Amino acid sequence: MQNRSIWFWLFLTPVILGLGIVVVIPFIYGFIFSFTDWNGITATKFLGFEHYINLFQEDEFMDSIWFTVKFAVITVILLNFFGLGLALLVTRNIKTNNLLRTVFFMPNLIGGLILGFIWQFIFVSVFDDIGTLFGIENLQGWLSTTGTGFWGLVILTAWQMAGYIMIIYIAYLENIPKDLIEAAKIDGANGFQRFKNITFPLVAPAFTVSMFLTLSMAFKIYDQNLSLTNGGPFNSTQMVAMEIVRTAFSDHQMAYAQAKAVIFFFIVAVIALTQVYYNKKREVEM
Amino acid sequence: MKKFYSGIAAALLASSVALTGCSFSSGDEEASSGSEDAVTVDVFQFKVEFKEQFEELVAMYEEENPDVNINVKTVGGGNDYGASLKTSFSSGEEPDIFNIGGPTDVDEYEEYLADLSDTKAADAALDGTLTSVKRDGQVLGLPYNQEGYGLLYNKKVFEEAGINPDEIKTFEELKKAVETLDSKKDELGIKAPFAFPAKEKWVMGNHMANTYLADEFNHDVMEAYNADTVEFAMGDQLKRFLDLQNKYSVQPTLSLDYSQQVEEYFSLGKVAMIQQGNWVYNTIASMDEEFAQNNVGLLPIPVEGYEGSIPVGVPNYWVVNKKSEDEVVQASKEFLDWMYTSETGKKFVTEKFKFIPAYEGYEDLEIADPISKEIYEYVKEGNTLGWVFLGAPVGWTEGAFGVAAQEYIAGNISWEEVIKQSKEDWEESRK
């Protein structure tokens, strides 16, 4: 640790300052405000844990947490499945490799709000027309029930993010030493065995990274939720982030929303850290 | 290598200094722009529909009054505006003129609201338009305009179906007309009689509920604001009207939204009726100018005892920030006065903003669009119901009644449940 010279601190200071000003200080402020009756402009009373006790008894908040958890589980599985699948596809020697990578990554470049509106059109109008044309009832009335709203959100997110996760897997897949694969081939391992015993263990670090990314992203989703279903019908597809924004800006309960945000932060932090810890343990050192 | 690092570090340092330098200087620049002793008034308003027209008016005012600078910032409707307004207050960048909705907003911002009783506009404001912004004899806001709503109908479709809109006064007559439309929908070329956007909680929670709650609170928003409970005395009528719209609408209603209702279905003539107000005129006109001008009529929502009445109210108020400097407060008041009481301003308000004026002195002026004109006729004859929903507890209209109504439409709960839940929520908020 000899190299903690003046340069070390010179490089670090802007980052620490930036992080402090836009993340740490506001977070501490928010934490303090969550114990008061802050209305967004002034706080007059200290309420202690009142908000925290209330929020655990509020159905709407608990429902939104439960909905978000279900959503996160499904999307994390789907995203990693499709991400790895696409990555395996585009790391093979096919001619359109680069084109395919671009195409798969593209949805990620469109903003969540716009994507939401595009998919809303697809679910509501296109699905409905196809359903009417072929007489498939399951395709009609999308987004008007809780179930279709849920799957709508899952499809949208998987479609948007799979390409991004693919990029991470590609980076790790291309790092796998060719000689290992070759040796396995000579030993007579078939494609499935090669994947199971060589590729899969060696991309374990990619799992750690992309599971963390997908998990935290699935929890924090807001814009897609807003533009696709807007929480409807009857707030049953409302995720935690949206519930907190509603509490703050529709119900004007800033401090209460802040308390919810603190709880939300702890839930996401605990889940994400546990996941990273366990994933790390089963990584293979090369 | 070391040289490389130090080079980068120096560059970083230099750029960060330059950046902070920028952010500091920009504040001064803004303040010093314009002529020497000009007064700068920051307006923060929410009505996206008339943003350009409003800026045009401001430019005219600035030309007449070179010593006043007006900066307009517009942030679009509903939640977005409320959130941005709150953010600008908590960050210390308080606007000098801004908008509030009703009595609950007055509570929220009371310490910032200047007394506007001495303005000409306050004198000219029509009876009843100031009740929700009066506190202790002070007038804290000036009404934007009046708005009204009902069932907008497609005149051509009604004619082809052989329905005379003048004969529709009661619920039974409306129901008969709807059934006729429904039975002829293939020959009329419509998908359904209604487009009912149950996805939009405000359509049910604000406007539909208001129609049947107005009587209960004597058409007085302040009475609703002070009420400890809500009775739903006309709950049955509310239910049958909701059922009618829901049953005879393009399905599924729960994923049908406002823009589909107005643009896709009504403006393109795919439905015969929608429940909306005069604010949709510009949207319809942007889809089909000719249709908007000649083919849109307005039917009152049937309420027993109030047949032929339209709910009319003031949706928003202009307020002036008391904590701004005195000369800024003065300049703000003068500007608002000019907008609503000068000849130029009045002409602009009716012709360009297409407002239904909430002030006296507009008798000789033509209201621009046909829907507003029709509503103004109802106002002149006194056939109006009050807007009481702005006096409901914060978040009640959408968060309680709107959500419950959606659950009812989905078949999850009974109508009794809807009433019970909404009532409980109201009482809970008023404790």
Automatic annotation (TrEMBL), chain A:
This is Sugar ABC transporter permease. It is a multi-pass membrane protein. The keyword Zinc-finger does not apply. It comes from Halobacillus shinanisalinarum. PROSITE patterns: ABC_TM1 (PS50928). PANTHER family: ABC TRANSPORTER PERMEASE PROTEIN (PTHR30193), DIACETYLCHITOBIOSE UPTAKE SYSTEM PERMEASE PROTEIN NGCF (PTHR30193:SF41). The chain crosses the membrane at residues 7-32, 65-90, 102-122, 150-172, 202-222, 261-278. Belongs to the binding-protein-dependent transport system permease family. Gene3D superfamilies: MetI-like. It is found in: Cell membrane. Residues 65-275 form the ABC transmembrane type-1 domain.
From TrEMBL, chain B:
Keywords: Signal. InterPro entries: Bact_solute-bd_prot1, SBP. Residues 1-20 form the signal peptide. It comes from the Bacteria. The keyword Signal applies. This is Extracellular solute-binding protein. It comes from Halobacillus shinanisalinarum.
